[in-house]
Amino acid sequence: MDTAKQVRQALKWLLFGSASFSQFCPIGLRDPQSEISVWLHGLGAPHDVTYSNVVAAARPFTVGIGLEGEWDAAAIRRRGPSLKFNERDGVKRLLGEIRLRLIDAIPVGDRQLFLFDAQDSRNYCVPRAWLWMRYLYYAYQRWRSTKRPNALEIRMTARDVHCLLVFYICPRPVVLVSVVDGRLANIFPMDLIGPIGPHHFSLALHSTSTAVPLMERSRRIALSSVPVEQTSVAYQLGKNHKEACVDRDDLPFATMTSPAFGLPIPEFSLRVRELQIEAVLTVGGYKLFLANTIEDQSSADGLQFFLAHGFYQTWRSRARV
After folding, report:
1. How many structural domains are present in the chain?
2. Is residue 78 in a domain?
3. CA–CA separation, 224 vs 177, rounded Å?
4. Cys-Cys crosslink for 16: which of 74, 137, 206, 302, Cβ 3.0 to 4.6 Å?
5. Whose CA is closest to 267, among 211, 227, 221?
6. Is cis: bond before 213, omega within 30 of 0?
């Protein structure tokens, strides 16, 4: 390595910290995760929404929260609620928060899905100085990416990125989605998913994904859990978001048929949910699929592949020392 390059790397390290810091980290947990609790504040008594908060879109960053009962949308807009992420056990430390602004309310089954624009955030997982060094490094990476010939015209703002990183203080499960429409089939990973009620799920998929028209036409999908030992397989299948169709024989694992819809699913899955898509919404640059659970089967117990941000993983590692 030449001297000039060594100097540049040393300066980058001094300004931004170690570039080897993982932005998103794979974690093995049982589903549902029990490390972080998520609370909705500002609407009277805090509401536990640990298992009913989802990403509805990443650009602009939009949070979906499923709530039961009668709610006054105008009152929610006036109060300006916030989402808080706490350590579930121990002293229940506050690790992050996101301030929200209501933009829409959608009936889903016996409850409503409230869509919120993320206004700003606070992250308490790491010291503030170190946090801002990382923010600066991410801004540097985004600036460099705009110089590439294939750079996206619409990019996440710094505010959206910071809110997304707080949202991933709570580990999020990664699943493999199976969809078939006639002779066309695809299996691809997703993490912008989650329950919004006892039987309903939401899935947010970038509008450019080739899987979108398949899902819109078929309206039937299967979500297969990923054992943590198969994490590399899930990453490998990320390329299928750009494939119009995949050959079942080319998949890097054996498949079987889902019980309700007859979709190809991995044999290694610990749990398979089959969903009927009831509505498709456009939220920013994303398609938001709202679906009802038709079948839910668990075949074994074990650690599943979750994603969390490196800020949380850093705090998590220190808290266990």
Report:
1. 1
2. no
3. 6
4. 137
5. 227
6. no
Q: Please write down the long-range contacts of 256-260, taking CB distance under 8 Å and 24 or more positions apart.
A: 258/178, 258/222, 258/295, 259/295, 259/297, 260/294, 260/295
SS3 state of residue 260: coil
Which phi and psi angles does 261 have, rounded to 5°? -105, -10
What is the pLDDT, as a whole number, of residue 18? 47
Q: Do you know the residue count of the chain?
A: 321
Q: What is the pLDDT of residue 321?
A: 55
- Give the domain range for residue 267: 172-308
What does pTM read for this prediction? 0.90
Domain membership flag for residue 108 = no
Question: Does residue 100 carry a pLDDT above 70?
Answer: yes
pLDDT: which is higher, 289 or 78: 289
Which CATH number covers residue 243? 2.30.110.10
CA 76 – CA 203 distance, rounded (Å): 24
Distance CA 137, CA 14 (A): 11
Residue 84 near residue 39 (C-beta atoms within 8 A):
yes
Q: Which two tokens stand for residue 198?
A: 């006892």
Can you tell me the distance from the alpha carbon of 160 to that of 58, in angstroms, rounded to the nearest whole number?
7
- Encoding tokens for residue 127? 């010291």
Position 178 in a domain: yes
* DSSP three-state, residue 191: coil
Q: In the predicted model, is pLDDT for residue 152 greater than 70? A: no
Peptide bond into 266 cis (omega under 30): no
Task: Classify residue 85: in a domain, yes or no.
Answer: no
